[in-house]
Amino acid sequence: MALWTGRWFTGFFTALIIIVTFLPVLLERRFRIHIPPELQLLAIGFVFASLFLGEVRDYYTRFWWWDIALHTSSGVLLGILGFLLVHIMNETERIEVHMKPGFVAFFAFLFALGVGALWEIFEFTMDTLFGMNMQKPMLGDPSGLTDTMWDLIVDALGALAISLLGWHYLRNPQQASFLERWIGTFVERNPRFFRK
What we know:
transmembrane; YjdF-like; transmembrane helix; DUF2238 domain-containing protein; membrane
């Protein structure tokens, strides 16, 4: 309907939401990786909240805390992704790497923070080259620097929380929090990555 009525921005983001929503299913089929339903729902909820509610429904300007909440949750999601990536490398027999739990957690933290920094570079590039308003400058700071720094800070806090939970999981696999249960489900459903 958005494309039919000429609302190109809304149509583009709606199409992007639909495509991203199907990514977990496509990854599962293409690479035979089972992604726990809880993680799929979190990712889909994040995409919906950031693209549809944030950009299309303008929640970024309607609610001052919307960008902060989404960057915190992106730090959490990217921390989980980084943790699972290095955990797979650490456990698979095809790669001769044996990292300590502290390094696995540190990598997950840096992975999430690195992707968050790349996103901020993307926002800056889009604003500079195409005149978009992705950095959402705050009052008293038209440059967007304050927004960028707060985005990176809350990315780091979300990533730190997941890194600490992942480190705790590797040190005490018998005690399960929600993250440990998700990681355990991922390991159980994808045994080919974790054969020693």
